[in-house]
Amino acid sequence: MISRQLAGVFAHLDEAENAGIARLCEWLAIPSISTDPAYRVECKRAAQWAADHLRASGLSVEVLPTGQPEGAGHPIVTATSAGDAAYKGPHVLFYGHYDVQPVDPVELWESPPFEPVIREAPAGAGARGGAGVGGGGGGAGRRIVARGAVDDKGQVMTFLESLRAWRQVSGSVAGGVRFTVMLEGEEESGSVNLERFVRAHRGLLKDCDVCVISDTNMLGRGRPAITYGVRGLAYTEVTLHGPNQDLHSGLWGGRTLNPNAELVKVLSELWDKELRVTIPGFYDQVRPLTEAERAAWAGLSTDSAGALRQIGLPPEADRGEAGFSAVEREWGRPTAEINGIYGGYTGAGAKTVIPSHATAKVSFRLVADQSPALVRDAFFEWLRARTPPGFRWEFQDHGTGPGVTVPTDSVHLRVARAALLAATGKEPALIKSGGSIPVAGLLKAELGIDTVFMGFGLDDDRVHSPNEKFEIECYRTGVRAHAALIDALRSL
Amino acid sequence: MISRQLAGVFAHLDEAENAGIARLCEWLAIPSISTDPAYRVECKRAAQWAADHLRASGLSVEVLPTGQPEGAGHPIVTATSAGDAAYKGPHVLFYGHYDVQPVDPVELWESPPFEPVIREAPAGAGARGGAGVGGGGGGAGRRIVARGAVDDKGQVMTFLESLRAWRQVSGSVAGGVRFTVMLEGEEESGSVNLERFVRAHRGLLKDCDVCVISDTNMLGRGRPAITYGVRGLAYTEVTLHGPNQDLHSGLWGGRTLNPNAELVKVLSELWDKELRVTIPGFYDQVRPLTEAERAAWAGLSTDSAGALRQIGLPPEADRGEAGFSAVEREWGRPTAEINGIYGGYTGAGAKTVIPSHATAKVSFRLVADQSPALVRDAFFEWLRARTPPGFRWEFQDHGTGPGVTVPTDSVHLRVARAALLAATGKEPALIKSGGSIPVAGLLKAELGIDTVFMGFGLDDDRVHSPNEKFEIECYRTGVRAHAALIDALRSL
User: Fold this and answer.
1) Segments making up each domain of chain A, as ranges
2) Tens of pLDDT, residues A275-300
3) A456: burial class by Cβ within 10 Å (0-12, 13-18, 19+)?
4) What's A231-401's CATH class?
5) Residue in B closest to A322 by C-alpha
6) pLDDT tens-digit readout, B307-342
7) Which of A213, A439, A475, B422 has its CA at 20 to 30 Å from residue A190's CA atom?
8) Please, which residues 302-341 of chain B have a Cβ atom closer than 8 Å to chain A?
């Protein structure tokens, strides 16, 4: 049962789908890689592009500088719709990001990452349904392939196009719902300027009641879901410095310690045999899984073996912290990962060198109620206690954000569930995600508001990897879900 | 007590020193970087230059192609002196190389690497004497700065100039000594064509009794030495493959194993707490150090703390296999080194990736009588036994060469010691080197001959690094030593 007006919006969206996808491709063509200073101007262009789209839907838009000195960071796009006089629902903050990950290794892309293409599903792909934790659902479908297709431009676009459709059909900006939109340009590079921005623009944000973010996945193809928790993150880079110059490994091998080998030895101690992280106190603040939660997750019929098969691994690669299932480890347990490591000669062939230093990028995915800053500091302390004689550490913090778990019985979550039901005809699953959306923790801390994660990605979308894609069916689900959310908010 | 004729040669060498250095600078100006195809013609020019020098001293010279197809490799210069009818000494093979290492990082050179300059010693440099294992001796002196200054054009030049001087003073080619000279152009790129060349030209080489190589160091400034052993080398590259694609560390962290972490854990087991290599059988073929050898090395008053200070490390960084001194570890014990390691994201900033694979370049310095092939195979087997579930290894062999230790009581070594005594007035030390000179092992295997390493470098010559230098005093010692060697050979 959906309202007549929503039915009209759905019809409009069906007609406008190709045009909407074409607009998305235009946005995707802008290489807004936030972590690389070479793409500074492109980030600004991508922000401007989103601002223009929002403005065309009637919202009041600003593109605001960030950073210190002002403008050192990538801009944040803000937009507001005042809401109809009759609107009684919550003031909704929509957060998304227009920046994207780097594209390397670029040689593995089947088409240039910033030349979006619509591609048919590869033959045989996804025939067994969704990869990742969620199985079931239909087969893989047509998709948009480009960097940012699903993370996060494509998902933001589902919201933008719903605003556009409601304006066209109802004549009211955002269908009369009171929105504040905030699109960030540094999510993929640690959101380093976001906290300061939120504090500086408290006036704009202080009346918001709830945040909606579309930057997560469904449970699988055709299995809509609401994510009620995400993990936190503490991302560090550590360099072990030894001799003040590279050494000849013949003349020096055996005479003194090798930074490559010492880094390897120290990092190998980060996990015990049960794959638990060994940093003292690491698990002290972890909120234990409840029996109800474990039972509910077990009932989602997720398919760990199927997900491993999709990435070329056999069932025995289902390995992680002892005593927990794959889903529990991803959604409810913290982990430590070496995201990058490098030291010495890494070119082709042989060079007999002992390097002066070696580096690792080590990050921690955290769950409620772990403090990322405490974990980061404890890690640095743990390393310090393992300094090889005469060597020294250099530490860098590439950003932290707390994990978030929101109540599953709030009015906001109920509205979102109703919207997904209206959009898809299916009751959405309640799931968590192992990824991190630090802004949710920040908004909780700064504004006291919870976040509803209503996402439309799939586990096999190759987020952060070559050939990132967003399936058209998922895009459609997203656009309809946001349109239905607006309808549900109007009805409160 | 030196012969009248040698005294005459010394006098001639003194007069001709500046001219000899000017000739060396001419040779150094030819950028004969063998590993880089862009310098192919320059390598040929450098070979031709050496051929002309040898021809001017009266030897019969050829510049012979190498490689398959013929000429694919860089040429080898051969030259022979038949020896006087009265000559009763050994047929000596002199081996050297005219190719040089690449110059990167070129921005660290204080003068262009192929524009040789004579420079005064930097103020304060080397005031404490030699770096490296050898302390003592005088302060740093005037030096020739250029790529190849000491490795190996400068050292080869000390031999070439001694031939020239003997011809001028005595009228006989090479003072009447029977020599075969072999100058290679691929030493710095793995000597990939040398073994085939030696086999194909067995007729030229089969009568040689002993090889002399000048490509090692003295014990320190003013401390002449003969190197009676070098370590062998087995250089490998190993890649651990996990998932068939890079993964998002949020969505996958904790769900499966991470190739970076698994590589780190496996490699950390390569050494035990005593810094002994843990590969089964690794030490089985190691020739134990004799008490006499250990006593002799201890008596050389090497300065490990001083050498560490030169590379910015405190005395407590004197760490290696338990139970052995720094000198013993470099000269007489094998070692395993991680020369390079890389996996995942290695650019600036943060990327939350679990990589599909991770790679390490691992090499072993070996001592007599270890077989490099056995060690390489045992390492690969050891890795195979540590394959994480569902993962696989990829192995590459970047070359092997056996270690060499020659008898210290041979007639050849006695002649060389006498020559160094005559040249410097000092009894040379008997030392070993931790570096590798694979040609010595090749000549032993193919021709059954030993090698006398009579080298004139210093530990701080910056071999393979920017601002490579050869001190004039070392050059002078080399020229006189080779001249005295010819005199000693004539007297047999």
Assistant:
1) 4-230+404-490, 231-401
2) 999 999 999 999 999 999 999 999 99
3) buried
4) alpha beta
5) B254
6) 999 999 999 999 999 999 999 999 999 999 999 999
7) A475
8) 304, 307-308, 311-314, 316-321, 326, 329-330, 333-335, 337-341
